[in-house]
Specification:
Distance between the termini: 18 Å
Shape: globular
Protein name: ATPase AAA
Oligomer: single chain
Organism: Bifidobacterium stellenboschense
Strand content: 5-15%
Radius of gyration: 13 Å
Number of domains: 1
Order of helices and strands: HEEHH
Mean pLDDT: 90
Length: 53
């Protein structure tokens, strides 16, 4: 992804704080919001194109 460990850790903490993800052990997380994984997978191409603008 081209980002530092510090950068990723900062965003991991933010997502944990707002309960979007939950800690599942060392180096592992899971989505806390029901069906978020499925939504992101279904819309990944659209999201990627939107971010490239």
């Amino acid at each position: 992804m081209g980002k530092s460990v510090k950068y990723a850790g900062r965003y991991r903490m933010r997502l944990l704080e707002v309960q979007v993800i939950v800690d599942k052990g060392y180096g592992k997380v899971d989505f806390a919001i029901p069906y978020l994984r499925e939504y992101l997978r279904e819309h990944a191409a659209f999201i990627r194109m939107s971010l490239e603008r």
